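User: I'm preparing a small set of examples for a lab meeting where we compare how different chains pack in three dimensions. I only have the primary sequence for this one, and I'd like the structure in C-alpha cell form so I can line it up with the others. Please keep the answer compact; I'll paste it straight into my notes.
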Amino acid sequence: MRLLHTGLAVSAGIGAAVFLAAATPPAHESVAPLSPAALAEIARVEAEIDRIEADTLKRLSSVPDNQVQQIELLGKLMLFDKELSVNRNEACAFCHMPETGFTGPISELNGSTGSYPGSVRTRFSERKPQTHTYAPLAPVLHYNEAQGDLVGGNFWDMRATGRRLGNPAAEQAEGPPINPTEMGLPDIACSVYRASQRPYRRLFEAVWGAQAFAIDWPVNAEDVCNTPGPPAPGDPAPMHLSPVDRGRAATTFDQMAQSIAGYEASHEVTAFTSKYDAVLAGKAQFTAQEQQGYEVFRGKGRCNECHRDGGPGEEPLFTDFTASNIGTPANPQLPYYSEGLPDARGYVANKNGSSFVDGGVGAFLSGGHPLSQPSAVDARWKALSSDNRGRFRVPTLRNVDKRPSPDFVKAFGHNGYFKSLKQIVHFYNRRDVLPRCAPHDPREGTGCWPAPESTENMNKSKTGNLGLTEQDEDALVAFMQTLTDGYTQKN
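Assistant: Understood. Below is the C-alpha cell output for the 491-residue chain.
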C-alpha cells in the first residue's frame, strides 16, 4: 500500500517480515514469526510498561485517603500488570499506551498487521486496538427509537454494553482477560487468583472489602491459570470453585474492571487538555489552516454529523456513539486470516479462514464473540442484527493523531487498513469517485480503492463523494491534530 504524502514512512518489508506467507500455513503454525523490528518495539513497550508499573507501585507506600483516588490507583496498577495474562507477558496497556492516546503503541505493527499479538504471541485478534481515552463517557447501550438506532457501548462492535454494570468501560475491561487472542486466561477466576498474589491486594481489600479474595482456591489453581484458553468444551469454568466462591470471584472480577474504568475516567487519561479545548476556553487560537479545517469539519466535510463536537447539553466528544459502515476495505495483512488452522494447542481462532468478513455490531447481536463477550445480548435486539451487519462504532476523534514522534505510524479503521489521517480523509472524500483497484495496483490509496470488506448497510449518504479539495483535506487533518491532549501542559 502506498501512503499519501503525510511525512510518514512505512517500511516495505514490514508486511512480509511481520506477517504471513501467501501460501497456506501448516497446522500448528498459523502465523510467521514477528520481524526483528517488531520484536524490538515490543521489548521497548514491555520495558516501558514495567517502568510505569514500578513507579505506580511506589505509590502504595502513601496511598491517598480519598476512595475515588484509591480506585484510580488500583485501576492503573491493574492496567499495567502483565501478571494478569496467561503467560505473564501482556498487560492491558500493551495495546493501550499513553503516548499514543491509549491505543496501539507499536509503529511496526500499526503500519502492517493493524492488530496485535496476544499473550500467546502467535495469536492475533481481528481488529486494531481502540483508544481508552474518553471511553468511560460512552452511554450504556440503548435503542433510540426516534433515531431507529443503537447508541452507546464500548468495543468496535458495541458488545461491552454496560447494561449489567452500568458502565460500558468496566464491561470492556472484562473482555480481554479471557479472550484467547488477547490476555488468554481460561477462566475469569484466574484474573482474581493472579490479582490476589499482587502487591496491591491490601489496597484492593481496603477499597472493596476483605471478602474480595477470601476464596478457597483448588490445589491445581496454578496449572489451570498457566494454561491458555479457551477452556475445554466440557469444562467451561476450569477453576473448580464452590458456588459461593464462584460468586465471590465473579464479584471481585467486576470490581477489578470497575477499578480499571475508574482509572480510564481519571484526568490522567480523559483530560480535555487539547488545543481545541484551549480554543474553546479562549486561551488559544486556531491557525488559519486549523480554522479552515474546523469549518470543513462542520460544513461540507459532514464530519460533525457523526463525530459530534457538542451541542445543547453535550460535551464535545467527537462521536455520536452510533455505528456505521463506511466501506473500509479489508486489511489483507491481518494475521487473523491465516488463523484458520489449529495452533500448537489446537485452538482455531478464525474458523472462516481467508473468507472471514467482520460482521461488526450485527455479529455481536447474533451472538458473535462468545469467548470474549463481556455483556449479554438483549434478546429484543436480535431482530436488529441484519440491519447492523458490517457496522462499527463511530470512534472518538480525540487523540486520533497522538503519537510519540512524527514518524510513528498510527492505524485507523476497525481493521487498521488506513495508515494516516490524510489517507482516511481522502477515502471519506473520494471513496465513490476513484475506480476499484486492480490486484497489487500501485495507485491504491491515492488513485483507486479496493472493494469494501462488506457492502452490507454501507453509509452512502454521508461519505464517498464530498467534493473536497486537497487543501480541504489537509486542513481537516490539521484540525484533527488540535484534538491531541497535552497542549495546555506543553504551553
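A couple of notes for your slides: Residues 1-31 have pLDDT under 50 and may be disordered. The CA atoms of residues 192 and 253 lie 6 Å apart.

User: Perfect, thanks.
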